[in-house]
Amino acid sequence: MKLILRLLLNALAVVILSYVLPGVGVDSITTAIIVALVLSILNFVVKPILVILTLPITIITLGLFLLIINAIIILIAADFISGFHVTSIWWAILFSLLLSFLQSILHSILKEDKKK
């Protein structure tokens, strides 16, 4: 149940950001749920491989290259999902940053509700 709720919160964050950012688009809420699911899978499977392969450049840039890795994962998801599009890597970087920020806010609200 917790996993489904987190997935729906991530989908909500994707929908909100698609309205705010002109370079990112989602066709429907179903597509947003699929985007949230695919991003979760890619972050679980592909991101560790990319982090290990790019470890030297990540160390040299003091971790800033991880932003590029997150943007690449978002662009890969945009290629897989037909109703989700990101126009450039710059929009993907901004989408990644704002998605992380919005997810942390939404998940912290969820944790506060459970404490009461």
Automatic annotation (TrEMBL):
The protein, known as: Membrane protein
Stretches that traverse the bilayer: 28-46, 53-77, 89-110
Pfam families: Phage_holin_4_2
UniProt keywords, alphabetically: Membrane, Transmembrane, Transmembrane helix
Keyword Calcium attributed: no
Native organism: Flagellimonas eckloniae
